[in-house]
Amino acid sequence: MAIDSAKIEEHIKGILLALGENPEREGLLDTPKRVAHMYEELFEGIAYSNEEIAHMFDKTFEDDLYLPQNNNEIVMMRDISFFSHCEHHMSLMYNMKATVAYIPNKKVLGLSKIARIVDMVSKRLQLQERIGSDIAQVMQKVTDSEDIAVIIEGQHACITTRGIKNTNSVTLTTTLRGKFNTDQSFMNKLMIMYGKELHENH
Questions:
Q1: Residue 74 · residue 92 · CB < 8 Å
Q2: Where in the sequence numbering do the catalytic residues fall?
Q3: What is the distance in angstroms between the CA of the first residue and the CA of the last residue of the chain?
Q4: Whole-prediction pTM
Q5: Over the stretch 31-74, which tens digit does the pLDDT of each residue have?
Q6: What is the Cα–Cα distance from 93 to 153, expressed in whole angstroms?
């Protein structure tokens, strides 16, 4: 469903009034329109299902690629920078980095597409845990591999700027599918490649 910019403008004006502001003053006159345009960009991913995102970024390579039978090689893309917005307070989740790994199943995905998948699923009102599962689901559809790992770390403005105001806290989540979840040897390889210690609780 397309974002309704006109309604956003109307409601932002109402929020300004509720805050005790004057939406007609010079500095705020175009604010509702600016916010509506910003939301169109920030929440673009709401308009697409995971299936549709997979279809957008399904460029894979099979020609001239040798993968042995029962392939155990891992492809990992580390430190993909992104941000998102928490669905509970609509506050920023920032300083976020995703690491995405998979075991190829007869084909590999163009690396830029991995970053684009992360970007698109984060452009929704999200939970950090769900971002990981959304990325894993899209990756499974695109690569035809069940073996996907997603590691995300980030900070949440709903914790750092309000309430407890814990400015140093970092949230780390793991989403493990296939061999990464069932075979400890693959978890060990993942940890070595990631270069940071992960707790067993995933």
A1: no
A2: 86-89, 128, 156, 158
A3: 34
A4: 0.92
A5: 999 999 999 999 999 999 999 999 999 888 875 566 666 778 99
A6: 10
